[in-house]
Design goal:
The protein is of the alpha+beta class and 251 residues long. The chain contains seven helices and eight strands. Helix 1 packs across helix 7 and helix 6 crosses helix 7. The radius of gyration is 17 Å and the shape is globular.
Length: 251
Amino acid sequence: SVTSYILGHAICGGYIEGIDSKINDWPIIQNSLYYNQKIINFLNMSTGDQKYINEFTHPHGTPIVDSSYSFEDSNIQRTIKFYFENSNHSKKIYNYNGFITQLIINYVQFKTGNNFEKLLDEIFKDKVKIKYSMSIDSSDPSVSENLGTVHPMIRATRYDYLRIAKAIMDDYQNDTCVGKYLKEIHKRRIPKNYGGDKYEPEFNRTKSYGGQFHMDYPGLKDRVVFGFGGRSGQAILIDVENSRIVVINSI
């Protein structure tokens, strides 16, 4: 979810054209099913990669063909070469997996270049006004970042995560450029339709997914709620129209 918020700022900053632009200018994903796909497909976890990765049957981001390999602990070029070279996408349905988020954050880094850290500072230090440090790890510190080494896990304190959630709510309500982005990804959300809610952690069991957020929570009909689903059952639900944020801290 935070990766999506970063992407929204990259679009509003002019680094990326928009959510309907295609990822066809990134050399390391050429000759794979991800090449030439629209950004909205990555945001909605609907790239058609379910034949190659399925976190419900192979947890922790391991490929279906090799349970010993972890996508998030390797660089993207290596993963593409070993598991996605000459791959073809299947039907573009919701297929939640962490590799997609890894692709998004590394594509933002590719497009922003030397301004990547500057963009992060503008978002989190200047706008969100985080109080403590934030950490974005490297998935493979032994190689060049040009190979796609940014890890999708973003570490922050619980209060700074709450500050990020409030910034998202404020953007949505004030109809800023990023607020318009948030409204658009809510509008473009897709149904999950993967055979029942038993396949996801408790607070991720929603009817739809949009822009790296869980949406349409059971029992909250006609409410615009942006849901973060975090590690070990942590969750943040943002009711953007009613100015309510609920946080579950769990480990």
